[in-house]
Design brief:
Layout lengths: L2 H5 L8 E5 L4 H12 L3 E6 L2 H13 L4 E5 L5 H15 L4 E4 L14 H28 L4 E5 L12 H21 L5 E7 L5 H4 L3 H9 L13 H8 L10 E4 L7
Parallel strand pairs: 1-2, 1-4, 2-3, 4-5, 5-6, 6-7
Helix pairs in contact: 2-9, 4-5, 5-6
């Protein structure tokens, strides 16, 4: 390997990246990482003002960025997100399915409404968004999809069974997408964070947070920024021979 090849490993210059749920938490950290790596970034979330604030912050970092208000549960919004991205930046190279709905209910008290909302945002939305972006990903020489799942997909998940089940299903779709899209040069992988210090995490009772921390070998929450390296690996040239895989970034909690 020479210097120029090495320098290209994590370089996202000239690539267009969509990050759903990109206005806060892990999504915003990933969007910042992509901008700093040279990418053009489209942040999507439900609130238009939050989208514009995040995009302005990304532009302040020196990047090209726009925000597009998008509800992952609204199918029409998915096509509009891809269309706006293509009209603004000319294509789609990387899609990061990060938006999620953390609905929690105990088994025995599951409601149809909760199951439906979780399905629409955590599974149907990401899968159909990949379909919407697929024609553009097929024409990209650097196409990659990153599905954000969760360690909940691999461990016992009391109270969080709905969320964990949807993430497990998204993991299954990740493997199927990798197999079906390999011939088109599209890599598809997943990243499964453990407990991360985000707004979503802070809504949990303190004893629940303490329990999650105690379940890690490193004994702490991750910062959202600690997810950036793994995401870049899976969507840049550095991960050019990785597809259909999941990186578990959980402080050593899962394999016990």
């Amino acid at each position: 390997m020479d210097r120029s090849s090495f320098d290209r490993l994590f370089d996202m210059t000239g690539r267009t990246v969509i990050v759903t749920g990109g206005t806060r938490g892990i999504g915003l950290a990933l969007a910042q990482g992509y901008v700093l790596a040279g990418a053009r970034v489209v942040v999507a979330s439900r609130k238009a003002d939050a989208c514009e604030q995040a995009a302005a912050q990304l532009r302040d970092l020196g990047g090209e960025a726009i925000g597009v208000a998008t509800h992952l549960g609204e199918v029409d919004d998915l096509a509009a997100l891809v269309s706006r991205t293509v009209s603004e930046f000319g294509g789609v190279d990387v899609l990061v399915n990060n938006a999620a709905n953390p609905l929690a209910q105990p088994l025995g008290q599951l409601t149809v409404d909760a199951l439906t909302k979780s399905f629409e945002v955590n599974l149907r939305g990401p899968v159909l968004l990949v379909q919407e972006a697929l024609p553009h990903l097929k024409t990209s020489p650097h196409a990659a999809v990153l599905n954000m799942v969760s360690v909940g997909a691999f461990i016992f998940a009391p109270m969080l069974s709905i969320y964990a089940a949807m993430k497990s299903a998204l993991m299954s779709f990740t493997r199927s997408m990798a197999a079906e899209f390999a011939g088109d040069g599209i890599r598809v992988n997943a990243l499964a964070p453990g407990p991360v210090d985000t707004d979503m995490m802070r809504k949990n009772p303190q004893e629940a947070i303490d329990g999650m921390v105690a379940g890690t070998l490193m004994g702490r929450l991750a910062s959202a920024d600690e997810m950036v390296g793994a995401a870049l690996l899976l969507t840049s040239e550095a991960g050019s021979y990785i597809t259909g895989q999941v990186i578990i970034a959980d402080g050593g909690g899962t394999p016990r």
